[in-house]
Design brief:
Elements: E1 3-21, E2 27-47, E3 52-56, H1 68-79, E4 85-91, H2 102-117, H3 124-131, H4 138-143, E5 146-151, E6 155-158, E7 166-171, H5 178-183, H6 196-205, H7 208-213, E8 216-217, H8 220-226, H9 229-239, E9 244-247, E10 254-258, H10 261-274, E11 279-283
Parallel strand pairs: 1-8, 3-4
Antiparallel strand pairs: 1-2, 2-4, 2-5, 5-6, 7-10, 7-11, 9-10
Helix pairs in contact: 1-2, 2-3
């Protein structure tokens, strides 16, 4: 095999709670994660020349060691003593710096792609152990589907799949630093914590209404006051018929849950005309059957 193509799917947070700050500076979290059918493409090719080269369709993204995909490929080359060179082609569609784990998903795809390209035969669990050293969301992005994430995000429990629905995703023309959000999070300021256990129960019951009613993200307390456009987009989605709407991750992307295709499409059209958000997508949940990125039928 001389080339490997992998789809790197984005995620949303149906629930995001922060339990507290750890001595190492990281935060303990409880999150309900859901993969969505919006993806980047990572293409890895063997090259005769040694080393790693990279290209990307977005010129403002780094194509060196500052990029997680590049670092993932280099880590795999070092870990498994791969002497062949590798060329990376990254095609981005997931919004950047948007709370959808695009970079982590690309990193996960690179780990999986190197494993397949060089026929290393490593189980996905081994790749997850390596992935967490590159980013807290990388193990989940290798697993995919619907999951409860705890610890710093690396302790994963598969959950019942999200009920089928339509997800309107809208990113306003701002970028948010995850580090800045966590540094400014004050858990002593009357924080309203989302009902994570109730969300898990709603998923078990297959209740879309129960899922929508329990959407919650404590990071909104930091991001929305700084970027009021996020609140405006949430309110507009509700006006357009969303069951509920929420900021994903540290933001600024907002997603709305719609039960009916016609209502969702009308809302998507309206928001594109209004131009409050720069990137708008209408997608559905991605169902990995908790088999992770290694399931060839999903790639």
């Amino acid at each position: 095999m001389n080339e490997c193509r992998i789809r790197a799917y984005g995620k949303i947070n149906l629930g995001l709670d922060v339990i507290g700050k750890r001595p190492d500076g990281y935060h303990d979290v409880r999150m309900v994660m859901q993969t969505v059918q919006l993806y980047d493409q990572v293409v890895l090719s063997v090259r005769e020349q040694p080393g790693v080269t990279m290209e990307c369709n977005l010129p403002f993204l780094p194509v060196d060691g500052h990029n997680l995909v590049y670092r993932a490929v280099e880590r795999m080359r070092q870990e498994y003593r791969i002497h062949a060179g590798v060329h990376i082609r990254l095609r981005k569609c997931i919004p950047v710096s948007a709370g959808m784990a695009g970079g982590s998903s690309d990193c996960a795809a690179a780990l999986y792609g190197m494993n397949r390209l060089f026929e290393l035969g490593q189980p996905v669990e081994k790749l997850m152990e390596l992935g967490v050293t590159l980013g807290a969301d990388v193990p989940y992005c290798l697993m995919r589907g619907t999951a409860l994430a705890e610890g710093i995000g690396e302790i994963l429990t598969p959950l019942a799949p999200m009920p089928d629905c339509f997800l309107l995703i809208a990113k306003p023309p701002v970028s948010v630093s995850t580090r800045w959000v966590y540094e400014n999070l004050d858990l002593e300021a009357g924080t309203i914590h989302p009902d994570i256990d109730g969300m898990v129960d709603a998923l078990e019951q297959g209740s879309l209404e129960g899922v929508a009613r329990r959407l919650g993200n404590v990071l909104e307390d930091v991001t929305i006051p700084e970027y009021p456009v996020i609140r405006r987009i949430k309110e507009r989605m509700l006006e357009l018929g969303a069951e509920n709407a929420l900021m994903s991750g540290s933001g600024p992307t907002v997603f709305g849950i719609f039960a009916e295709a016609e209502t969702a499409q009308a809302a998507c059209t309206a928001m594109r005309l209004e131009r409050e958000a720069r990137q708008i997508y209408l997608v559905r949940p991605f169902y990995a059957d908790n088999r992770g990125i290694g399931d060839k039928k999903q790639n």
